[in-house]
Design a protein that fits this description.
InterPro entries: DUF6308 (IPR046275). With 208 residues, this protein is mainly alpha-helical. The chain has one domain. 54% of the residues lie in helices and 2% in strands. The chain has eleven helices and two strands; from the N terminus they run E-E-H-H-H-H-H-H-H-H-H-H-H. It has a two-stranded antiparallel sheet. Helix 1 crosses helix 11.
Length: 208
């Protein structure tokens, strides 16, 4: 499969996801809500809550004290409501109504000093886990030609709808479902394809 500027075969992707699951159990449980993908969009999908902010801390958002009141007071209810909680990036072609709504919501959480792309993406992915990819420094190394904003969202969309990638991600999810019941990687079979992509993108960027 092709992810950003990197390539990885399914067998290696499975091995990398096993390692991630073994070393990031708390992230999968408390941030991703696996198994069961509980609380999709958080307890209140149309506004940011203290619970959301606590969950992002588990994945290393490193929020500052000044970030918290600002995030809780952002008036984005209209922008959240315009983006269904189950909206998928696969359905958000650049220029489409869904893509533009996604960028409008992204913009509501932009511009606060010290609240950069990595923090924002971890929050927005939590609120809309099928639409917004996580973006950290390693993922930006994998997507070197589209590090942020609409360009990044467009690049990830292209990877998700690439027919070869669609086939390989389906195979990946089947393989994850076939993991032994004791395998920590088995819970990843319930994760959105987008989440599998950004985990692999991070690991590929870290390996550079």
């Amino acid at each position: 499969m092709n992810i950003g500027t990197r390539k990885i075969v399914v067998d290696e992707a499975i091995a990398q996801l096993r390692l991630y699951a073994e070393t990031n159990g708390a992230v999968l449980r408390y941030y991703d809500g696996l198994p069961g993908q509980t609380l999709i969009g958080g307890s209140d999908p149309n506004q940011v809550t203290l619970e959301d902010l606590a969950r992002t801390m588990v994945i290393g958002s490193d929020l500052r004290a000044l970030d918290i009141p600002w995030l809780l007071e952002v008036d984005a209810e209209k922008e959240f409501a315009a983006v269904p909680v189950d909206a998928k990036l696969e359905d958000a072609a650049p220029g489409s109504e869904l893509f533009e709504a996604a960028m409008a919501l992204d913009e509501k959480f932009s511009g606060h000093r010290g609240f950069g792309q990595a923090k924002k993406s971890k929050l927005l992915h939590l609120k809309r886990p099928f639409l917004y990819p996580v973006s950290d420094s390693f993922i930006r190394m994998t997507y070197t030609n589209a590090a942020a904003g609409a360009e990044f969202l467009s690049a990830v969309h292209r990877d998700l709808v690439n027919p070869a990638n669609v086939r390989d991600f389906k195979l990946l999810q089947v393989r994850l479902m076939q993991e032994p019941p004791t395998s920590s990687a088995r819970v990843l079979s319930e994760a959105p394809t987008l989440r599998l992509l950004d985990i692999l993108a991070s690991l590929l960027g870290e390996a550079k």
